[in-house]
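Project standup — Tuesday

K.O.: blocked on the structure for the chain from last sprint. Re-posting the sequence here as requested.
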Amino acid sequence: MNKISVTILLNFKMSKIKLINCVLCFGVISFFYTFSTSVLAQDSRFTQFWSAPMTVNPAWAGTVPQWRASVLYRQQWYGVGGGIQSFFGGFDYNLGTGRGALGGWIKQDRVGSLKANNLEVAAIYSYKVQFANDWQLSMAGQLSYGQRSQGMDGLRFEDAMLSGNTTAEEFGNQTVRYPDFGTGFVAYNSKIWVGLGAYHLLQPDVSVSNIKDQIPIRITAQAGYRIALNDEHTLVPSAVVQYQNPFLQTDIGLNWEWDFLYAGAWYRGLPTRSGTQSLPSSALALVSGVKVENWQFGVSYDFALGSLVDVGGSYEISLVYMPKYDLRRSARGREEVKCPINF
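H.V.: unblocked you, prediction finished:
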């Protein structure tokens, strides 16, 4: 084989390698872009929703005797490029019977090593009506500000790998800001609660291109019941159903309380349906925590089932501070009903 033939063969092999690298790089970019876009198009959903109740229904704001502060961290699907990290911080304050309540929260979702972020800040006003049969109705409206950004800085490109420098590609971080609105109601007594909430009623357009991309309205329904077995042991079965087109998710579980300890098991559909197709993806979540004076600390772990086994599980850590009930009197001289969702 002469020198010219060797040169042609080497050039052909190098071109082939570059072509393969380009195809692989394009595939990785497409996967991560689709993954992060689809994730950010849906709201994050917490296993320990009782530690962040305003994320499933704005009407939970102020369903405490005085005030409540809570923080929660969630790491989801850590087996896929770092997965999704969610941070939540919330505060609500009961102004007293006949004067309503104020609430607010901030939540941020980050997708893996990409600079893909979803930031949302919300302010809530709720008003409670107390009935003669010891039932209360809480109704609320929520105004929020959202910011979504999409970046490619977490990816490596062929020119950067060959040169050892940064890539010459220019993608930039694309950011969209938008206002939004939500509402909800919850009816409860000391043992039972049932509620309905709605988020993203303005369906803001978060597209970073000329193609319209609206956030779907999210509808939530919640219900639960406290069963006192004796003076020390209590069972709390409950369920949360959430629909955000095209996903329908149902979470159902049972928590057990004993003195300052609590534990529970939950089945979480992630989701149970997408459009007209049933999805096998789901998770089994185990929950545990302690209550010391006004503090509540909880941890949970979601074991992925079905098609999500290979992406890793999810875990949450929550901390809530809520002063004890001060038996604040209503305008009729009766004690306010203790909300059953609060441990």
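K.O.: great, moving the ticket to review. Residues 3-321 form a domain with the Porin fold (CATH 2.40.160.40). The radius of gyration is 24 Å.
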